[in-house]
Structures are given as structure tokens and as C-alpha cells.
Design a protein that fits this description.
696 residues; Immunoglobulin-like; 13-stranded parallel beta sheet; 12-stranded parallel beta sheet; 57 strands
């Protein structure tokens, strides 16, 4: 018995719906022309309009359909019903009707080309994509409000015109050029995205939207001063349906070195790249292309006001091969080259797979490259607003590499961790790599002027806060933003990295270049973590490398609130030991002492403090309150009544059990023990409360 895949059924239904819509549109506006032969013949009569079809052979070829569409007023629709008996080149394009018009197929007026109609006639003969191939090229010239849908293995060029949609094509090269603006490539509904080993190219065209596609590459290119500009093109968007999956493409040259790009930007202004997967396979768990070496490449010539937001960029890790390149890896998540200004890189995950694990790192995360006409000005990587920080992790070498011609590159609020060398590398004027030593008055040169980093002196945890002190020696009479980070380990070189952004403070240097640092910040870290810092001169935006690491001391928890004195006059007391952690298998034990013996009790907790009267004592956290399992306090055996009871609860084990999905890294917790006290007015005993923050 033959079965039909769900995707095939969906495509067939879409095809029938699309064809019906096309016929209705044709009835309202103009005619629908049905191509019903693969022959490249023209035998119908002048004036070559729809009314003159078909010619003496009784059939309509693609060339005839194009001529009739151009010569007949209105927006024509071209549908396809090519009998399978005429399908040629099946050895190359099995299950597809191949049309091979001499010199390519051109239409010079608005037209709706709907190849999904072939599926409605002959069925889903190519489950991997569309059923119609135009072997040479399909040119839509000066089309306004037209469409090309459902083609396979076809180069589709839209030249001039505007407002066209190109949707549901497979393994196609799509090019928008010559000032054709405001086109939609892909879409957010099922079946609208273009798929397969295709590419999308926007050249000298503006205000185009590229969403919902799965392709190998996207290129946004200007074409010189005498062509229309390339402005305000959007690749992706904030919603899941708008996401493009751009897997990358590349080749090996004759010497065995890999090269290729997933997304290329050159001579463009106002390009927005948002929420895409770049360089990964379509499931986000492996490398997209073995020879692709750049996820996003800004290069060649001036780019202005480029925004790279919320993308997942990973897997750019291409191995060179014999004869000359064997054994070396190449690849960077984002490469900034050329000239121009205004690159904003915020909220991206660079080097992380779809499970947010740093397992698909590149050689470098973000790289700036010296250029004879550069450098690019006003580069911002991250920010302190919610969601603006990038996570840059798992790379062979540097997380962020700033070349020595660049200055004013600002890094802020990022999570940079698990990289092979420096998290932030400022290359010096002599092209030397490694930690750049601080110098008096910060007068040396190189990337970001080799901005001096802070020197930390103490980092002390007290409950939910961390007190940090230190100094900064830099340019005299200048203002700086000092940012603080924490990591479970110190980097092997003793400087950085910074897995968790803790916060920042502003300092001003005196006439000797010195500034003191003293700040108290929320401390969502465990005891024993390491603290680092960066400094950014506010006048020019240049950020330093990470400072030397300093291990935090003190406790990651604190007690507060007032316990309820029990019926025997004892005051129950809460305590803790260990470190709260979202991932560590070690214990974080919360205990209560001075509790009535042999009484049932529970530890209950919430996510914020709110001290309020409760059963003759105080409830010390805000609703909603979560309960842990009942336990017995033990202690002296009955009939003795005393305060020898205790409660012990391992909160890390509770986290690992997955009972409460809110118990994640950074979550603040407030809790206390409740117990039975039959002799009290409300039969209730209450300890004081514990405040802590779940570490990583």
C-alpha cells in the first residue's frame, strides 16, 4: 500500500489552494494561462495575446505564455500542466517537468508564475521540492505585485519593479536586482519559505524582506555609485516564523584551503539581521557546511548602520586539506572588514548549538580585520539592557578579536566563556597577541588604544550581594564604565573570562589617571567563583581586555526575618552550608535547629521577600509559596518534649529533581521552615528565613 508523507499532503493541499486562488485572481483581474507542453515552440498568431492561444499545435508553451502575458493588459497568471509523457532530463531532475526555453525565460510585465499548480495536476512527484524546473533562467522584469512560487532548481531573477513575492521554491538561486524594491522572499506561513541548497541575493535593491527560508547563503550587495542603493533590507525578524536558517556554503581551493560565507553584506545601509540560525545545520545541532569559513561577513566596501540581533551563529570550523593546508581550521562567527560605520551586535549566541551548549564553536567568535580603506567605525558588541548581551563561547581561540587598526569598539554586558585563548583580545601595534599589560597614563597604541583594564582587590559575597573594590589607572581626567563578570573558573592565562555579567559602575580618573572602584552588586554566584572586570572609556567607547581574576570570598546566602518562639520558649533557627547551584552535583543543605522534637515540618519558599504576619509569627516570602516534602524533626523520643528536633533539606538535590522549572541560574530564593507546635495558639512553629541566589 502506498503512503503519503504529511509534508507531501500539506504541499498538495497548498498547491490546490494556490491554484484556486490564482484562478479567482485571474477571473477578477485578467486571465490564467496554462502551460501544457515542455516544447519550446511559438506558433500562435499576432497580436500574441491570451485570446490568440493556443496556436495550430493546440498547446501552450512557456515561451508563448510569456509573450501572451506581456501583450495582454492586466496581471496574468501562468499555471502549469505539463504531461509526464513530455518530462525530459529525468536522469538529472527526477520527478520534475523540465522546461528549457532558448536563452532563458523573460517576462516584461507583472505576472504571477505558480509552479505549485503542476502538483495539483500530476501529484507530488518530487517530495523534496517543486515539480517545475526552468533550466536556464527565469527573469521577471519590471513586475509589480507579481509572484514566483513552487519552482525547483531554477535561477529566479527579479529586475526592476516592486512588491513581488517569491515563495515555496526549492534549490533555487533567487536574485533581486536593479532597484526592485519591497519584495518578499519567503514568508511566515507553512510552505512559503524557500528551501534546499539555494541562495538569496539582494543587489542594488531596498526594503526587501527575507523570512522563513532554509537556504545555503544570503548576500546583500551594493553595485557601485551609479546603481540604485541597497538600503533597509531585513533578513529574519523577531518571531520564530520569520527565522531563516542559513546553513552556509564554501569550497576548497586548489591548495586545499577552505573558503565561503553564509551571510555576506557589502555596500549596504540599514541592513537588519535578526533571529536567524547561521552556519548550523537545519536542526541546529551540527555544522552546516564543512568549508564555510564566515557566518556573517561585512566587507569589500562601505556598510552603514548594520544591526545583528538575536541570531544563533555557530559551526564555522572548516578544516584545510592536502596538499598545502592539511590540519588547520578556519572560521569566524562574525567578521567585520572594509569600512563604513555603525555595527550593532546584540543578543546573539555565537558558538552555541540549539541546546545552548558551546559545542559548535568557530576558530574565533567575532573578528575585526584591518583594511586599507578602513577601519569600520562605531562598533558596539552587546549592551546592558535586557537581552542585549551576547553569549560568545566554545571557540578554538579568541571570543572577540579586535585588530590593531580599530578603536572605539565597545563591549558591554556579554557572556564570554569557554574559549581557547583570551575572551577579549586587543592586538597591539606590533601585531602581538596575548594579555596586554597596563601602562602608566595609558599612552600605548593598538586595538582600542590597548585600554588599561581594572585591577581588582577584593570581591566579597554577603547574602545576595557582592562587594567589589579595586582601582583603574588610565587616561587622566576621563570617565569610564567599569563592568564586572563572574565565572566558575579563572582562565588559564589568569585574565578573564566573564561568563556572567554582574553589573557596572561609573568612575572618573584624576589628574594622575587614577580612579578608585567600590561597588555593591546583586551576587548571583556561588562561593569560590572568580570575578573579572573590563573598563570602557566613555569618551571614545574603547573597551579593555578582561582584568586578572579574583576569587570571591564570603557566603552566597544570608538569614533575615524573625523566628516565632515555640511553646517551650525555644527560638527555631535556620542555617545553610554549601553553595546553591543549578548544575553542581554538590550539596546545598538548609537546616533548622531548636525545633520541637518528633514534629512534622516542611521547608517552603518563594521568589521574593515579603514579611507579613502569619499564624502568630511571620511569613517571610511573597506568594506563590512552594512546598517541599514533609519530614519529621526527630530528636528525643516521646514522652520527652524538648527542642532537640532538626530539619535538613538538600536544595541542590531538589533543583536537580526538576520539580520546579523556575529554579534556574540567577533565581533569587527566600524560604523558611514551618513545623507543628500543638501547644501554641495556632499549632504552628516558624524559623527565621534564608535568602540565597542559585548559582550556575
Amino acid at each position: 500500500m502506498e503512503t503519503t508523507s504529511p509534508s507531501s499532503t500539506l504541499r498538495s493541499a497548498l498547491a490546490r489552494t494556490a491554484f484556486a486562488s490564482l484562478l479567482l485572481a485571474g477571473a477578477a483581474r485578467a486571465q490564467t494561462i496554462v502551460v501544457n507542453t515542455s516544447a519550446d515552440d511559438v506558433d500562435f498568431a499576432f497580436p500574441y495575446q491570451v485570446a490568440n492561444l493556443p496556436g495550430p499545435d493546440g498547446k501552450v508553451s512557456l515561451a508563448e505564455a510569456g509573450m501572451a502575458s506581456d501583450s495582454t493588459p492586466g496581471v496574468q497568471g501562468i499555471a502549469f500542466n505539463v504531461p509526464q509523457s513530455e518530462w525530459t532530463y529525468q536522469w538529472l531532475f527526477p520527478g520534475r517537468a523540465v522546461l528549457n526555453p532558448f536563452g532563458g525565460f523573460r517576462v516584461f510585465d507583472s505576472v504571477i508564475l505558480d509552479a505549485t499548480t503542476q502538483t495539483a495536476f500530476t501529484g507530488d512527484t518530487n517530495p523534496a521540492g517543486g515539480e517545475v524546473v526552468i533550466w536556464s533562467q527565469l527573469y521577471m522584469i519590471n513586475s509589480v505585485g507579481g509572484a514566483a512560487r513552487g519552482f525547483a532548481n531554477t535561477v529566479i531573477v527579479v529586475s526592476g519593479g516592486s512588491g513581488n513575492s517569491l515563495q515555496g521554491n526549492s534549490d533555487c538561486g533567487i536574485e533581486i536586482t536593479d532597484g526592485s524594491d519591497s519584495n518578499l522572499i519567503g514568508g511566515t506561513l507553512p510552505g512559503q519559505g524557500n528551501t534546499g541548497n539555494g541562495s538569496i541575493k539582494l543587489v542594488s535593491s531596498s526594503n526587501n524582506v527575507v523570512v522563513g527560508n532554509t537556504v545555503q547563503s544570503v548576500r546583500v550587495l551594493g553595485n557601485g555609485p551609479f546603481q540604485p542603493p541597497t538600503i533597509n533590507n531585513r533578513i529574519g525578524g523577531p518571531t520564530l516564523a520569520e527565522r531563516n536558517k542559513i546553513t552556509g556554503r564554501g569550497t576548497l581551493n586548489s591548495q586545499g584551503f577552505p573558503g565561503g560565507m553564509a551571510l555576506e553584506i557589502a555596500q549596504a545601509t540599514g541592513t537588519s539581521i535578526e533571529n536567524n540560525w547561521i552556519g548550523l545545520s537545519s536542526n541546529g545541532l551540527s555544522q552546516g557546511h564543512p568549508y564555510c569559513t564566515a557566518g556573517i561577513m561585512l566587507w569589500v566596501d562601505s556598510n552603514f548602520s548594520t544591526t545583528i540581533r538575536g541570531n544563533r551563529i555557530a559551526g564555522l570550523h572548516a578544516l584545510s586539506m592536502p596538499s598545502h593546508g592539511q590540519g588547520s581550521y578556519y572560521g569566524s562567527g562574525i567578521v567585520i572588514n572594509g569600512n563604513g560605520s555603525g555595527v550593532t551586535i546584540v543578543g546573539n549566541k555565537i558558538g552555541l548549538d540549539a541546546n545552548d551548549q558551546p559545542l559548535l564553536g568557530c576558530v574565533n567568535g567575532i573578528v575585526t580585520v584591518n583594511d586599507p580603506y578602513g577601519p569600520v567605525q562605531n562598533v558596539v558588541i552587546g549592551g546592558t539592557a535586557p537581552g542585549d548581551g551576547n553569549e560568545i563561547a566554545g571557540h578554538d581561540r579568541e571570543g572577540v578579536l579586535i585588530s590593531n587598526a580599530y578603536s572605539g569598539v565597545r563591549l558591554s554586558g556579554n557572556s564570554i566563556h569557554d574559549n581557547g585563548t583570551l575572551g577579549i583580545e586587543l592586538v597591539d601595534a606590533g601585531f602581538q597577541f596575548g594579555v596586554s599589560s597596563n601602562d602608566p597614563l595609558d599612552v600605548d597604541g593598538g586595538a582600542n588604544g590597548l585600554q588599561n583594564f581594572p585591577v581588582l582587590q577584593s570581591a566579597t559575597l554577603t547574602g545576595g550581594t557582592i562587594q567589589i573594590s579595586g582601582t583603574l589607572s588610565s587616561t587622566p581626567l576621563s570617565n569610564f564604565a567599569v563592568e564586572f563578570f563572574a565565572s566558575p573558573q579563572c582562565d588559564a592565562n589568569g585574565h578573564g573570562e566573564g561568563a556572567l555579567f554582574l553589573g557596572s559602575t561609573l568612575v572618573a580618573s584624576d589628574n594622575t589617571g587614577s580612579a578608585g572602584i567600590s561597588v555593591s552588586l546583586p551576587g548571583a554566584i556561588a562561593s569560590g567563583w572568580y570575578v573579572t572586570a573590563t573598563a570602557t572609556e566613555l569618551g571614545n567607547g574603547s573597551t579593555s581586555e578582561f582584568s586578572a581574576c579574583l576569587q570571591a570570598s564570603g557566603s552566597a546566602f544570608s538569614t533575615y526575618c524573625t523566628a516565632k518562639t515555640n511553646s517551650l520558649g525555644c527560638v527555631p533557627a535556620i542555617a545553610a552550608s554549601g553553595a546553591p547551584s543549578a548544575s553542581n552535583a554538590g550539596s546545598f543543605v538548609i537546616s533548622a535547629s531548636n525545633v520541637l522534637n518528633r514534629q512534622n515540618g516542611i521547608f517552603f519558599y518563594g521568589y521574593a521577600q515579603q514579611i507579613a504576619p502569619f499564624q502568630g509569627g511571620f511569613k517571610c516570602m511573597a506568594a506563590p509559596a512552594k512546598r517541599t516534602p514533609i519530614q519529621n524533626s526527630g530528636g528525643s523520643a516521646f514522652p520527652v518534649l524538648d527542642c532537640s528536633g532538626t530539619y535538613v533539606f538538600d536544595f541542590n538535590a531538589w533543583i536537580q529533581a526538576g520539580v520546579d522549572s523556575a529554579l534556574v541560574f540567577g533565581q533569587e530564593i527566600d524560604g523558611q521552615f514551618w513545623s507543628r507546635d500543638a501547644a501554641s495558639a495556632s499549632t504552628t512553629g516558624l524559623t527565621n528565613a534564608l535568602h540565597f541566589v542559585i548559582g550556575q
